């Protein structure tokens, strides 16, 4: 068991439960705002669609701001997050996938973090899968010290609104964000519709999409990983795509890649053609 990770998770969950006994609207509103700021801008816009898949570009300072937002979610630093997610796309639902429900729904949700290989602090090992980030000292620093922004924000919240503000703005907001993100790894590889016959089990799941600013349109995403747009049909609500489109209109986002609902599934995301088993191959050859 990964002792430090497990202990941290338990403490944050206890903090989230404690927060329920000290509710106030100001603390609640702060938590909602920070949920959008950290999970929406940091994970969906930043770590995922920008840093992992490079589906659009923004000026470097804004990219770094998104990365700091992402570090505020307790999902590790940018190099580790990007590396794990690139490995997930490489081996989706096959041996080597860090979190596939084929190894159990609970495993895909959180078990892999508590009991799996722990590499999130091993910047060197993870850099192999994110050489583009590892070249930038800022990302190496943030990967090693991904918990520093959280300490700073926690101190600020405590100074402004005491313990209720700290528990709502950090504990509740982080725990909800973690489970929402983990649902993308568990639920959207089990439950929902498949528009594209991808080589994995990914699904489009509307309620996960609502919790994650559009990340629940996961079958669309596995079909077209470099598309900044995940909700492809008009009824597939994708707040992150709306934000990226807004940034493009303002001239801030460039090189935005977007698939359409009728864009065909690229060959590399389709299942490999069935290969003949050895005895069958021999039969074919000797015929
Ligand atoms: Zn996936
Ligand atoms: Zn992805």
Shape: globular
What's the count of strands? 0
User: Main β-sheet: number of strands, strand sense, barrel status?
Assistant: none
Order of helices and strands: HHHHHHHHHHHHH
**Total number of distinct structural domains:** 1
- Distance, first to last CA: 54 Å
Low-pLDDT residue spans: none
The multimeric state of the shown protein is single chain
Task: Estimate the mean pLDDT confidence.
Answer: 94
What does this structure look like?
Helix 2 (25-52) crosses helix 4. The chain has one domain. The chain has helices at residues 3-19, 25-52, 60-71, 78-90, 105-115, 123-127, 131-134, 137-144, 148-185, 206-211, 218-223, 239-249, 278-286. With 287 residues, it is mainly α. The longest helix has 38 residues, at 148-185. The structure holds zinc ion (2 copies). Residues 48, 52-53, 85, 89, 221, 225 line the site of one zinc ion. One zinc ion (ZN) binds next to helix 2 and helix 4.
Q: Outline of this structure?
A:
With 287 residues, this protein is an all-alpha fold. It is 59% helix and 0% strand.
Features:
globular; 0% strand; mainly alpha; 287 residues; 59% helix; 13 helices; binds zinc ion
Strand-helix topology:
Blueprint: H1 3-19, H2 25-52, H3 60-71, H4 78-90, H5 105-115, H6 123-127, H7 131-134, H8 137-144, H9 148-185, H10 206-211, H11 218-223, H12 239-249, H13 278-286
Helix pairs in contact: 1-9, 2-3, 2-4, 2-9, 2-12, 3-8
The structure holds zinc ion (2 copies).
């Amino acid at each position: 068991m990964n002792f430090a990770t497990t202990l941290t998770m338990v403490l944050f969950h206890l903090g989230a439960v404690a927060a329920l006994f000290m509710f106030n609207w100001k603390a609640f509103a702060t938590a909602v705002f920070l949920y959008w700021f950290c999970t929406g801008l940091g994970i969906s816009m930043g770590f995922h669609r920008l840093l992992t898949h490079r589906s659009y570009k923004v000026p470097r300072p804004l990219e770094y701001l998104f990365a700091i937002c992402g570090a505020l979610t307790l999902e590790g630093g940018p190099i580790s997050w990007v590396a794990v997610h690139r490995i997930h796309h490489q081996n989706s639902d096959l041996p080597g996938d860090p979190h596939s429900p084929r190894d159990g729904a609970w495993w895909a949700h959180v078990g892999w973090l508590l009991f799996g290989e722990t590499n999130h602090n091993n910047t060197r090992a993870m850099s192999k899968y994110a050489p583009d980030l590892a070249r930038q000292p800022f990302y190496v620093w943030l990967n090693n010290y991904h918990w520093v922004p959280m300490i700073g924000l926690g101190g600020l919240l405590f100074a402004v609104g005491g313990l209720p503000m700290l528990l709502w703005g950090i504990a509740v907001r982080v725990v909800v964000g973690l489970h929402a993100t983990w649902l993308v790894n568990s639920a959207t590889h089990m439950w929902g519709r498949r528009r594209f016959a991808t080589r994995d089990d990914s699904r489009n799941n509307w309620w996960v999409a609502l919790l994650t600013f559009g990340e629940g349109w996961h079958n669309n995403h596995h079909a077209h990983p470099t598309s900044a747009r995940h909700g492809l049909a008009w009824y597939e609500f994708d707040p992150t795509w709306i934000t990226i489109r807004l940034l493009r209109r303002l001239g801030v986002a460039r090189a935005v890649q977007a698939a359409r609902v009728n864009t065909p599934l690229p060959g590399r995301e389709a299942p490999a053609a069935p290969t003949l088993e050895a005895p069958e191959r021999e039969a074919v050859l000797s015929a």
